[in-house]
Amino acid sequence: MPDGIGNLINLEILAASVNQLSGPIPFYIGRLQKLKLFRAQANFLSGTIPESIANLTMLTKFGLDSNNLQGSIPASLDLSSNYLTGELPVEVGKLKNLGDFLVSQNSLSSLLPNDLGSCASLEKLFLYGNYFEGPIPSCFTSLRGLVALDVSDNNLSGGVQEFLMSFVALKYLILSFNDFDGVISTERIIRNATDVFFAQNFLGSGSFGFVSNGILEESGATIAVKVLNHPNRGASRSFLIECETLKNIRHRNLVKVLIAISSVDYKGNDFKALVYEFMAYGSLEHWLHPSNDVINESHTMRNHKLLP
């Protein structure tokens, strides 16, 4: 990124995704205090995320996923699928205009900070695939604008907070693969939400949908079903690209596609899904970057992901 970007103090949108940018994110990015959108996904950015990003208090959209970032996380935003460690900082609470906060598939740990409750504008909060522990904080009661909440595949415990049942905007809720206990009123959640997951058939989720396993009634074969989440921008294009790619390549290490489905659901909305053979040995990510518990079969099964 050129040094001169730091002088564009009136800049509101900075979009540089899917390029070949490399090296660290410059510290002077924090000078752009009018910045509302900053996206640099799918590059080769490396190093740590500068603390100066916490100065960008007007940000509503932020994306740095699919890079090579490391180190601890400052107060930001869409950082999925990197190698970030440590705790979520309390400075996150300063980003009161933040709409999306996605830090899934990293190695973040410890308790969820109460300061997240100050981000009252949040619509998407994705924390899945980390090592967070403890209960869902009671401060989340202020996040009434949440449309999607995914805290699956962590070490969270305690009861599921009852206030989640009253979130009328909530459409997408995943709590799978934690240590929650107690009883919750699923009827109240399902009445509002279109996608709710507690059960063991949920395998994982990504940028454009979620994956569950199932059994074909006739043959008894186990399958994995990837359902596209159409409200996410780019989901339809991702479906077409994946179909085209898998049509033209064959490899023994690729999961076989059994059928592609493009139809409408019972509400008349577009419905697209891919049905794969089920492979019960974890994800490519966990084989390339194994953790201490990757040898645990149950852990690898629940971390099974299909192509992104």
Automatic annotation (TrEMBL):
Coiled-coil regions listed: none
Record membrane topology: Single-pass type I membrane protein
Protein kinase domain span: 197-308
Top-level taxon of origin: Eukaryota
Provenance organism: Hibiscus syriacus
Major subcellular location class: membrane
InterPro entries named among the record's database cross-references: Kinase-like_dom_sf, Leu-rich_rpt, LRR_dom_sf, Plant_receptor-like_S/T_kinase, Prot_kinase_dom, Protein_kinase_ATP_BS, Ser-Thr/Tyr_kinase_cat_dom
Pfam families per UniProt: LRR_1, PK_Tyr_Ser-Thr
Protein name: Protein kinase domain-containing protein
Family per similarity comment: Belongs to the RLP family.
SUPFAM superfamilies per record: L domain-like, Protein kinase-like (PK-like)
Compartments it resides in: Membrane
Alphabetic keyword roster: ATP-binding, Glycoprotein, Leucine-rich repeat, Membrane, Nucleotide-binding, Repeat, Signal, Transmembrane, Transmembrane helix
